[in-house]
Amino acid sequence: MRVSMSGQGKALRGTPRTWWDNLRGPGAPAPAALALLVVSIAMYLMVRGLTRPSMVDLRVYRIEGAAVAGHADLYGPLPTPHGLAATYPPFAALLFTGLILPPYEALRIAVIALNIVLLLAVAALSCRLVGVDGRRRATVVVTATALGIWAEPVFTTFRYGQINLALLALVLWDFTRPPDARTRGIGIGLAAGFKVTPAIFIAYLLLTRRFRAAAVSAATFAATVAIGLAALPDASRRFWTELLFDTDRVGRPENAANQSIQGLVVRISHTRDFAHVWLLLVAVAAVAGMACAVFAYRRLGDRWGLPAVAVTGLIAAPIAWTHHWVWCVPIAVLLWADARRWLAAAAIFWTFAVWAVPHAGSLELAFAPWQIALSAWYVLFGVGFLVLTAHLAHRAGPTAPGTPTPARSETPAPVGPA
Fold first, then answer.
1. Rounded distance, CA 393 to CA 21, Å?
2. Per-residue DSSP letters for 65-117?
3. How far apart are CA 138 and CA 415, in angstroms?
């Protein structure tokens, strides 16, 4: 029903904004972008119907939830596909008990739908982080979602039924909230309680002197540990004192899907027993990456500092599976907005090149040089992204006297295409 312009203005002023309005900003997406999204989702569902992906991780999560509900040994032998072990903290396993309630086929459908919604939220939060203009934000969000489905890390997250997009959304939500929000940091703490590795963002908050948000994150993380300890005391003690440091439970480091420096070094050296000098390289990469992130934050804000932290955590981790690189979505949005000349480099995430080599231990430890190169794309991109971040931050120069610094406003002006 149409209303007069004056009445419409009053109606709009009196209409509460929904969470989606807050995420996407003013303006509707272009019809072509909406059509692209519909076609993209339809094609994905068709491919999915033809290939019938295993959703192996979702099955493992469900078995972990059943183990908790049945008072079984969470970190003992479980009837999981391929003998996969439980690797998440007890807090996550407690939440996984909800997965045993619906029939498995209904759960599969629900998880597919949820991941599509989460990808849409990630695209919207990425636009907010980068500062995409409100008049075109909705179109960018829809387009990024349509294209993001076909990025290998996202596609593989869908394929395995992983929780990567949920963790990414929690972190992005926290960093795009008002700086003075009292509960800012709770999303990071929850993400760390689920999978530990997001705790690197607490270190980033400390290094950038956002102590209240860091305290909220740490307290939330500690609360998840306490909940797990209260509900599953034996499993909690074992996880936090023993299993947390056992990377062999996560998988083979030489696996070509392991896109970290350590995984690449194992494939280069053709042995898991590589020299400690390589561990020094990983440590140097971690320190240099965090320094780059803090430097970028001071001159360009979180829109460059936050992805730099995420990339540092990925390349410095003992194991970073390809589906952990869902940060490719906010990075692609960032490059499109700020450094379009380098956007083509992000296309590697849409090539599935890392799957062009064998994925079997006896073969991966004997890779030829060209196979090693194909298995290194994400690591090389990560290093290159950190170099680009440092370059743009250096070029931006110190903030002019009398103007708000990124550390205060956290919304610095775009640096423009590089």
1. 32
2. HHHHHTT--TTS----GGGPPP-S-HHHHHHHGGGGSS-HHHHHHHHHHHHHH
3. 22
CA–CA dist 38, 29 (Å, integer) = 13
Give the span between the Cα atoms of 75 and 89, in whole angstroms: 10
**DSSP, residue by residue, 302-347:** HHHHHHHHHHHHHHHSS--BGGGGGGHHHHHHHHHHH-GGGGGGGG
Q: First vs last Cα of the chain: how many Å apart?
A: 47
Q: Identify the DSSP state of 394.
A: H
Q: Are 257 and 321 in contact (CB under 8 A)?
A: yes
Contacts for 181 with CB less than 8 Å, ≥ 6 apart = none
Single pTM value for the model: 0.89
SS3 content of the chain, % helix, strand, coil (to 5): 70, 0, 30
The pLDDT of residue 413 is 42
Residues in the chain: 418
Q: What secondary structure, in 3-state letters, does 135-177 show?
A: HHHHHHHHHHHHHHCCCHHHHHHHHHCCCHHHHHHHHHHHHCC
- Hey, what are 265's tokens? 């070094």
Predicted pLDDT of residue 26: 57
CA distance 321 to 258: 5
75-114 pLDDT tens trace: 999 998 988 999 999 999 999 999 999 999 999 999 999 9
What is the torsion angle, in degrees rounded to the nearest 10, for the CA atoms of residue 266, residue 270, residue 273 and residue 279? -30
* 61: Cβ contacts below 8 Å, ≥ 6 apart: 96, 99, 161, 163
CB burial of 336-363 (b: ≥16 within 10 Å; e: otherwise) equals bbbbeebbebbebbbeebbeebeeeeee
User: Which residues have a Cβ under 8 Å from the Cβ of 116 and sit 6 or more positions away?
Assistant: 41, 145, 149
Q: Tell me how far apart the alpha carbons of residues 25 and 18 are, in angstroms, rounded to a whole number.
A: 11
pLDDT at 33: 94
SS3 258: strand
At 82, list the tokens. 């391929």
Question: What are the residues whose beta carbons fall under 8 Å from the beta carbon of 328, sequence distance 6 or more?
Answer: 151, 153, 154, 346, 349
Per-residue pLDDT at 275:
61
Amino acid 52: pLDDT? 87
Nearest CA-CA partner of 257 in 172, 335, 354: 354
Flag residues of the chain having pLDDT under 50: 1-14, 24, 400-418
Residue 170, C-beta contacts closer than 8 angstroms, at least 6 positions apart: 187, 188, 190, 191, 198
